[in-house]
Specification:
alpha+beta, 162 residues, 4 helices, 38% helix, Alpha-D-Glucose-1,6-Bisphosphate, Chain A, domain 4, seven-stranded antiparallel sheet
Length: 162
């Protein structure tokens, strides 16, 4: 099962990347993330191992994932343990005009009952709807941060001009 969605974000690439890199804020950004614990971080912070309690279409499941950050344009999330045989998600961030094109994709392999349920979610459009909600939440948060930063830089310029 493979899905990809995208959206345009009125914020610089660096801010969109910052939103995705701040995994500890995921429970505030994504409704399906109920708890998140960073278990390990590389020295540069570009790799993390994280336990996430997710609401998977009404079922609460713990998932252990490895996050790989390649600033400022790529984030990969690999399931290390959880309900799927294999799950890899990614975010690709590209500068486009005065904003950012955010692409989000996922490849999921499952077996048995989980596979049957996953196919049902795919066919019903629920899986795509969840991914669209994810990119919408990132867009909202990044655009809010961009407005905040823009306001702060205007205040700094006006103070210097006095």
């Amino acid at each position: 099962m493979e899905l990809t969605v995208s959206t345009f974000v009125k914020a610089p690439v660096e801010i969109v990347f910052e939103v995705l890199r701040d995994v500890e804020s995921y429970p505030k950004i994504f409704a399906y993330v109920k708890e998140l614990h960073v278990l390990w971080s590389s020295e540069d912070g570009n790799e993390l191992i994280v336990d996430i309690l997710e609401d998977m279409f009404g079922f609460l499941k713990w998932v252990r994932s490895k996050f790989i950050f390649k600033p400022p344009s790529w984030i990969e999330i690999r399931q290390l343990s959880g309900p799927f045989r294999r799950a890899v998600g990614w975010f690709e961030i590209k500068r486009e005009g005065d904003g950012t094109l955010l692409k989000h994709g996922a490849i999921i392999e499952a077996r048995g009952l989980v596979k049957a349920f996953g196919m049902l979610m795919l066919e019903s459009g629920e899986a795509e709807a969840r991914m669209r909600k994810e990119v919408a939440a990132i867009k909202k948060h990044a655009e809010m941060l961009a407005k905040t930063y823009k306001g702060e830089s205007k205040r700094c310029v006006s103070k210097r001009g006095r």
